[in-house]
Structure formats: structure tokens, C-alpha cells
Amino acid sequence: MSDASEEIFMITTVNPATGETLADHEELDGAGIEERLARAASGWRGWRETPLEERAGLLLRLAGAYEAHKERLARQCTLEMGKTLKSAIAEVEKCAAAFRHYADNGPAMLEPLRWDLAGGGVAEGRWLAQGPVLAVMPWNFPYWQVARFLAPTIMAGNVGLLKHASSVQGSARLIEEMMGEAGAPPGLFQNLPIKSGAVNGVIADDRVVAVTVTGSEGAGQAVAEQAGKCLKKVVLELGGSDPFIVMPSADLDEAVKQAVTARIQNTGQSCICGKRMIVHADIYDAFLDRFTVAMGEVTAGDPFDEATDMGPMSSFEQRDTVLGQLAMAKAEGADLTGGAALPGEGAYMGAGVLTGVDPDGPMAREEIFGPVAMVFRAADIDEAIRIANATPFGLGSSVWTNDEGEKERFVRDIEAGMTAVNRFLASAPEAPFGGIKRSGHGRELARFGLHEFMNLKTVLLNG
């Protein structure tokens, strides 16, 4: 019998559409983690001195690699977490767009700042890299979540370490492969196939300067606690229970259409898509009738089939979590249409609509990470805003109105990091992304995401 210290542990990935094992990935032991941390520290010392135009060139080559291999990347993602192939391809293309955005605009974002001093002389602000940044990423957008951390990391002159979700380790390995194809130097980006229990040790290592987390509230709390103990910067993008508010002046057909898209995108497993539909009393019945019919027409099935609207849930465990929430809602007196587990071997469930949920009750404060919407009636704009804010989360929001006064009220008074007006809320490389309250803090994307993990050094000069 081998010594326990030599035992090899595996991280297993499973196809949620069939329940079949896809692969076993060897988990890093302590020596393996140390080797990659040392490589990151060594790689950063060289990368921080790389000219901005060379960093931009790498990003452009990386975009090209993603585009050249988008079908392969997308297929792996679909196999591991169940999203439709067409949406997986769109995700890969979005990553390429982010790499190009930072290649084209990143150098200008890093131009020194300059201020004249009242007492004479000037001050400059220089953007300087800091070192290895650890990213703890989820399974729902295996490539995009990483790209919005990786693109600014490369441009900033930092290096990246990825602790990806166990269920998408094949996708994580492909990201490493794309970096190699683009010609990234050793240590610039490395995947750490580790489980959650090993994360604290990586955060505590002196070579790691900061942490970024996208995931559940619990994951964010655990990482933030360790980062706080180590006095390290952390950016958190956590859960959301986004309000989707519809007022009488809105285009009702378009609002219904986008509400359905919000709830079934990625089989409802998206942090920023509308989950709580808050509808003015004057149009509540009309909205609910059309929305319920449309949700009932959603097809769940083979994610490789072009005709499929949504694939399986990412895992049987995730489906069971959502089904448990629905059972709780019904026990509290809510009515559920649809939203049941579907027969067959995969982790499938149908789209559903919950009504009669107490807006001040426990269920209204939950994030349903699946294809089920809660629909609330609001007497007026004041009640709509009150219901929207009656949640511990504050990530995104979407409002539908053609009244200019109402638009301004919503933008000012909804407690969220983002508000979309008469459109579907989505992230974009050009705009900052992030939330408030228990949805986290800090920002990703745009110039703000680039600057989060950089040292803004003040330099005082005589003239």
C-alpha cells in the first residue's frame, strides 16, 4: 500500500445532460501548488516590464485563438455544464471581443495622470502592476467569467492564477491551452485544479497580492474573510435577485419577450438576469397571461440541438436546490405554474412562474438560480421600488417605461450596481460591472476593472 502522502486525488467532471462521467482531472497536491506559485512569481517579474504594445499583441493573438477554436471551446463548455451550444459559441466570441477591447484601449487607460500642485510643482499618478492575482470562478459562464478577469490582468502587467469550479476543469484546461497557443510566457496564466479547501492557503501565500471572486454569497464570504485576515485586496461579484420592473407606458410585448429571455438564458443560471418580475397593477394581468404562456412554450432538451431553448441544469445538485426552493415557496402559499423536474436521465427542468409570493417574506429574499420567475404586483412606482429593494442583493436591474420621470426615479432609487432601461441587462467590456449590498463590491471591465489590482503610485515632481 502506498503512503497516504502519495495518494492521488481526482476532480471528476460529469455531463449534466446524461449523468455520464466526462473525465477525471488530477488534483494538485501541496508540491504542485508551490510549483505554480513559484512560476507565477517568476513570470510576473518579467511580464511587468513588458511594453504595453507587446501586452496588447498577446491579447490580439489570444482573441484569434479563441475565434479559431470557438466550436471546440464551446463544445467542451456545453458538455460540462449544459448550456446550449449556440450560447456557448456566443460566449467564446464575447471573450474574444473583450481581449480585443483591452488590446485596443488598454494602453490609453494606463497613461499617467497629472495634477498641478497649488504650492508649486506637479504630481503624477503612475499605474503599476502588483503581482499574481488569484481568480476564484464559477461554472455558469466558464470562459466569460475568466476573460473579464484575464484580459485586464494581462494588460495591467499582473499574472493570473485560476481556481475554477470543479465541474468545468476541462474548460479551464482549454483556457491554458489557448494562452499557450497565443504565445504567453511561462507563469502568465495558470489553472490550479484544486478544491475549495485549498483556496485559503493560496490566498495566504505572500506571492499572491489580490483575489477576485465570482460566485455564491457563501463563497464570497469565505474568500473575503481570508483575504481580510491577510490584508489583501478583494473584488466580489456575488449573487443577485435582480428586479425586472414593467410600467404601463412600456412596450408590453417587448417586455414579455425580454423577461422570458432573462429567465431561461443559461437555464436561468445567470446572476444578472431578471428574476423578480415587478409589474404595475394596471398591466399586471396582461403581462402575467402573456408571460405564463411564453414560459410554457420554452423547450428544454439536447443542448446541441439548434431548436432547443435551454439545456439541462448544470448538475443534479443544482436542480435539487431549485426544486427545494420551489417547494418552500409553495409551502408559504405561492402558486407555481411549470417549474418541475423533467423525466429522463439528465438534470432537466421546465421553465416556471411563481405568483402569490409575499414580497416581504423569506422566499422573496432568495435567489432562484434556475428557470423560474417570481411575479409581483405593484400599485405604483413607489411600491415597485420598495419591492425591488426588499432584498439583500444589489447587482443588476431592468426597468421598462417610456416615462422620463419614472426612468430617473428608477436609476436614482433602485439599490443596484447596474440598471438597464428598456433593454436586457448584459455585461460588456466597455462598461463597468459590479454590485452593492450583498452582491459584492469592486468593479470588473472597462478602465475600472483594469485599475482594480494596480498600484496608483503618486510621484511628486518639482516642475
TrEMBL record:
<dbReference type="InterPro" id="IPR047110">
    <property type="entry name" value="GABD/Sad-like"/>
</dbReference>
<keyword id="KW-0560">Oxidoreductase</keyword>
<feature type="domain" description="Aldehyde dehydrogenase">
    <location>
        <begin position="11"/>
        <end position="459"/>
    </location>
</feature>
<dbReference type="GO" id="GO:0004030">
    <property type="term" value="F:aldehyde dehydrogenase [NAD(P)+] activity"/>
</dbReference>
<dbReference type="GO" id="GO:0036243">
    <property type="term" value="F:succinate-semialdehyde dehydrogenase (NADP+) activity"/>
</dbReference>
<dbReference type="GO" id="GO:0102810">
    <property type="term" value="F:glutarate-semialdehyde dehydrogenase (NADP+) activity"/>
</dbReference>
<dbReference type="Pfam" id="PF00171">
    <property type="entry name" value="Aldedh"/>
</dbReference>
<comment type="similarity">
    <text>Belongs to the aldehyde dehydrogenase family.</text>
</comment>
<dbReference type="InterPro" id="IPR016161">
    <property type="entry name" value="Ald_DH/histidinol_DH"/>
</dbReference>
<dbReference type="InterPro" id="IPR016162">
    <property type="entry name" value="Ald_DH_N"/>
</dbReference>
<dbReference type="InterPro" id="IPR016163">
    <property type="entry name" value="Ald_DH_C"/>
</dbReference>
<dbReference type="InterPro" id="IPR015590">
    <property type="entry name" value="Aldehyde_DH_dom"/>
</dbReference>
<dbReference type="InterPro" id="IPR044148">
    <property type="entry name" value="ALDH_GabD1-like"/>
</dbReference>
<keyword id="KW-0521">NADP</keyword>
<dbReference type="GO" id="GO:0004777">
    <property type="term" value="F:succinate-semialdehyde dehydrogenase (NAD+) activity"/>
</dbReference>
<protein>
    <submittedName>
        <fullName>Succinate-semialdehyde dehydrogenase/glutarate-semialdehyde dehydrogenase</fullName>
        <ecNumber>1.2.1.16</ecNumber>
        <ecNumber>1.2.1.20</ecNumber>
        <ecNumber>1.2.1.79</ecNumber>
    </submittedName>
</protein>
